[in-house]
Amino acid sequence: MHKRFQQLGSILVIVILAPFLFLGGPETTSSPVFPAIWNLGHLLIFAALTVCFRLTFFKTEFQPGFVKFVFFSLLVLFLGVAIEWAQYGLNRNPDWHDIWRNQLGAWLAWSVLARPSNPVKWGRIILGAFLLFEIFLIFQVVWIDWKIQNQLPIISRLEKESDLEYWGGNISLSQDVAAIGNSSLKVTLTTTKYSGTGLKYFPYDWRNYSFLEFEVYNPDPDPLRLTLVVRDKTHDQEGYNYYNRYNDGILVIPGWNHIEIPLEDIQNAPKNRKMDMKNIIGLGLFATNLEQPRVIYFDDFRLK
Question: Engineering a disulfide at 156: which of 122, 161, 180, 301 sits with its beta carbon 3.0 to 4.6 angstroms away?
């Protein structure tokens, strides 16, 4: 009867969780915390599959062996690769780390079900350590997210190499010039149609503030026109429409420029709605159709 409940329980977990391998889940607009927790589902599903497999094909007490273990591991690997391949076909982003999570969940269940022995004991210890590491990675994501979401009014100070992690484009941390502190964000602009940089992970809730501020340094004698883009979650969910976000030009004269944008302007920028100031998820700065490459420096993005 106990085994029967185990089998039914594992089947229930599979039936409930398996559809989410292909449906739903984190979006590009989701906080990193959501996918970090969501991906633990791979551990649960493959642990349940292992329990179901064991109770179906091994009616007596389970006695693991090397050949059985290798065969089962290859079976799990094949299934994991097939799932990631199928997700790619459904316009989802395959994550090869998920294949490892599949293996870990299956191996953990395999070791728990196996008859106790010294190899099984050490296997449980090693696999338990790997499980703790996966949990540690989640807590690390949660901790980083908490720090970022609570660093306002600072959006990006640009003082450490780690500050560049969520910026894109041809960028580097430079100590050649700095408005605040010792460094700034150096961006090399090319002659492609759109060239610049963007920040994709920062404090999302801009309510209770009035201005977006940052510093820009133009080392050339000629002015440079940039476009500032600010997006909220609704903009990305509704198809990235040009008129559904904030777009405005900035003329950067030689030397340092202090930029101050009223958040009221950003809030009122979408054509048929108000910007969701609680869920600002994208900030970009780019030049258009430059005749020759240029270099620009940014520093100290903040709210006021």
Answer: 301
Q: What's the predicted TM-score (pTM) here?
A: 0.77
Rounded distance between C-alpha atoms, residue 242 and residue 234, angstroms = 13
- Classified by CATH at the fold level, domain 154-303 comes out as Jelly Rolls (2.60.120)
- Each residue of 26-64: pLDDT tens digit? 666 677 887 888 888 888 888 888 887 777 666 555 555
d(CA 71, CA 50): 13
| Chain-centre distance for alpha carbon 297 | 26
DSSP 19: G
Q: Cβ neighbours of residue 133 under 8 Å, at least 6 residues apart? A: none
Residue keyed to tokens 């050339």: 220
- Per the model's pLDDT, the better-predicted residue between 217 and 39 turns out to be 217
Separation between Cα atoms, residue 212 and residue 133, nearest integer Å: 39
**Residue 7, amino acid:** Q
pLDDT over threshold 90, residue 113 = no
* Nearby residues of 295 by Cβ (< 8 Å), 6 or more positions away: 186, 187, 188, 189, 219, 220
CA distance 180 to 167: 18
For residue 138, the tally of other CB atoms under 10 A from its CB is 14
| Residue ranges matching CATH 2.60.120.430 in the chain | 154-303
Please give the sequence-ordered ranges of beta strands (E in DSSP) within 38-165, or none if there are none: 154-156
Q: Do the strands 167-168 and 194-199 form a parallel or antiparallel pair, or are they unpaired? A: antiparallel
